[in-house]
Design a protein that fits this description.
Elements lengths: L1 E8 L2 H12 L5 E5 L2 E5 L4 E7 L6 E6 L3 H13 L3 E8 L8 E6 L5 E6 L7
Parallel strand pairs: 1-4, 5-8
Antiparallel strand pairs: 1-5, 2-3, 3-4, 6-7, 7-8
């Protein structure tokens, strides 16, 4: 169910260096070098580090089977009056098949619903 985690820190340089060393034996390296730094093993991106308040900023992503499900989760959340953050869209800066929609839970946590699979051939 958990696709990836994003941790926020007040010490981004030190935290990225820590995870680079700690995850290296597992075959993980820095794969995304943007405002949010992403670690992966060449197949998946599992851990992101971003600058921010480590207590109030929590972001987790739930894996869903396809883009239609991402759209459905977002539409049902909107119909139910839940707090929307970002509408479903591709995020090619992460990778070409990264499709996600975002909500906020009652405590303000960012909850992402993501499909990382390509669109099925028609």
């Amino acid at each position: 169910m958990i696709d990836h985690l994003e941790l926020y820190t007040r010490k981004p340089v030190e935290t990225v260096a820590f995870y680079a060393r700690a995850l290296a034996p597992l075959g993980y390296t820095l794969q995304v070098d943007g405002p949010s730094k992403g670690f992966g093993d060449g197949t998946t991106l599992d851990l992101f580090i971003a600058e921010g308040d480590p207590v109030s900023h929590v972001h987790f992503a739930l894996a869903v089977p396809d883009r239609t499900t991402v759209d459905r989760v977002y539409a049902e959340a909107e119909a139910a009056g839940l707090t929307l953050d970002r509408a479903p869209a591709l995020a090619p800066h992460i990778h070409p098949n990264y499709y996600a929609g975002y909500l906020r839970d009652p405590d303000g946590r960012l909850v992402e619903f993501v499909c990382q699979r390509p669109e099925p051939a028609t």
